[in-house]
Amino acid sequence: MSDHSSGKARGKEPTPVIWSGRATNRAQWLLAVAGGGCLALGIQLAFGSPWSVPLLMSVVGCLAAGLLILFGTVAFVHVAVKVDSETFEVRCGHMGLPRRRIPLAHVMGVEFDPSITPRQWGGWGYRWRPEKGMAVIVRRGEGVVLRLGDGRIFTVTVDDAETAVRVIRARLRAAATSKTP
Question: Does the predicted TM-score (pTM) go above 0.85?
Answer without folding.
Answer: no
